[in-house]
Design a protein that fits this description.
Blueprint (H helix, E strand, L loop, with lengths): L5 H48 L10 H4 L6 H17 L2 H14 L3 H18 L8 E6 L6 E9 L2 H6 L6 E7 L7 E7 L4 E2 L4 H9 L9 H13 L2
Antiparallel strand pairs: 1-2, 1-5, 2-3, 3-4
Helix pairs in contact: 1-3, 3-4
């Protein structure tokens, strides 16, 4: 039997404190990095918005003229208040009339019309408070039987799509995201009976997709699933 030499034992003893310091450093880095990056991102975005908004604000309304300090985030507050006021006015009769008049004016400008309509469609898709958001997370067999993928239920298939799909059963429109970028993916039309809804939220399912399966959501659904598997095990 081969024994360990005293030099190996001394090397392990010397490496112990260094290994402990390294582990503590990595643990601290895991804690600090998300916080630091979040604070840096918020600080940078606030500065960018201030630099874009404040030049349009008259000097007499800027707080640094009264307190002598350039407060970061003032432009963000002004932008939010201005956006709320514009949205409130746009929902009124006068606001809708002005909006229609402005869009009619834009429609007479060939290049500007294309840019405006494209940006408007993107904004309505991203920010519209309607039923455009995903309803639930689900699992479907993709790209073949026996392989399962996470998808998001959008709505039932409608119009010509529903009419031309084979079969008489209900068809469901699902979005199958890619990993690790869930903003790209595939639009699929699936038989409702082949869609297996999940108890986890859409946000938890998105985290699972983005992390490539490393971040599993907990909660009631996962606990019930674990208990169910245990009960089925002989």
């Amino acid at each position: 039997m081969t024994g360990h030499s005293p030099d190996d034992h001394d090397h392990r003893k010397r490496r112990g404190p260094l290994g402990s310091l390294r582990a503590s450093f990595l643990t601290g880095l895991v804690v600090i990095a998300p916080i630091g990056l979040t604070v840096w991102l918020i600080w940078s975005v606030a500065g960018w918005v201030d630099g874009w908004v404040l030049p349009f604000v008259p000097g007499r309304f800027r707080p640094e003229n009264y307190i002598g300090i350039n407060l970061r985030g003032v432009g963000v507050i002004i932008f939010l208040v201005f956006t709320v006021i514009v949205g409130w006015l746009a929902k009124g009769l006068i606001g809708r009339s002005l909006l229609r008049w402005g869009e009619g004016l834009v429609d007479r400008m060939p290049v500007v019309r294309s840019i405006y309509n494209g940006l408007k469609q993107i904004a309505e898709t991203v920010f519209a408070q309607t039923d455009t958001s995903f309803d639930k997370a689900c699992m479907i067999e993709y790209p073949r039987r026996g392989l399962w993928a996470i998808a998001f239920i959008s709505t039932d298939a409608k119009g010509e799509i529903a009419a031309r799909l084979p079969g008489d059963g209900r068809k469901v429109t699902v979005f199958l995201p890619t990993t690790p970028n869930p903003t790209s993916g595939f639009l699929l039309f699936v038989d409702a009976e082949d869609v297996h809804e999940l108890d986890m939220t859409v946000e938890d399912a998105a985290k699972l997709v983005i992390s490539a399966g490393l971040v599993y959501p907990g909660g009631k659904g996962a606990a019930q699933l674990k208990v169910g598997h245990s009960a089925d095990t002989p």
